[in-house]
Design goal:
53% of the residues lie in helices and 14% in strands. By secondary structure, it is of the alpha/beta class. The protein has one domain. A five-stranded mixed sheet has the order 1-2-4-5-3, sandwiched between helices. Helix 4 packs across helix 6, helix 6 crosses helix 8 and helix 6 packs across helix 9. The longest helix is centred in the N-terminal third of the chain and has 18 residues. Bound molecules: zinc ion. Zinc ion (ZN) binds next to helix 6 and helix 8.
Length: 218
Amino acid sequence: MTTLFKTLIFILLSLALTACSQTNALNKLSLTAEYKTIVHDNVMKAAHQKHIADNGGQDGHYSINNRLKNLTKKIIKANGLTDKNIEVILLKSTSVNAYSLSSKSHLAYVYVTRGLVEFIANDDQLAAVLAHEIAHIALGHHLKRQASSGNQFNQSQELEADQHSIKLLKKSNFKLAETIKLLERLDIFQAEQKFLNQADYPTNKKRIENLSDVIAGI
Ligand SMILES: [Zn+2]
């Protein structure tokens, strides 16, 4: 199993709408990191179980799970994303995080922590987080990272995921302005948490500018 896990590349990134940190210590401090794992098909399940274990286990809260499933279904259906079976998992962790896991297999996972759901102001903001993760999956970013020597998404991939998420949200009839509002709230939250932004991750200001341009042109 150790060898199996050695083949995994664990990537700590900031979630839709946050900055990112690379170490576990920072992750615990920041509450806003995004954790992405790139795997080969044969270790997909092992990585999935590890994600769940590392985040306090799966949270069975009935109405939150239903809310997440319905929002994900709405985005997938409106955009015809049927080539992947994207399953959304609620994690017990109180940190404010979202993650995604994808491989060449049919299955992909989006993980959302309980802390994130409690931070989010409304369904449009929760949909924005889900759409950002779904965008990484739809754009094949996990596989691109797997193919390269790097171990996390780069700035351009994050900005690309943001841009693509706006298209997904627009087709699903979500309020696009809520994505900006969420970024602005996260920026204040991260400043309060003394969150350390990573050099290769776009700042919230840059993400807001990027998204505002996309929304203006849509
Ligand atoms: Zn991302």
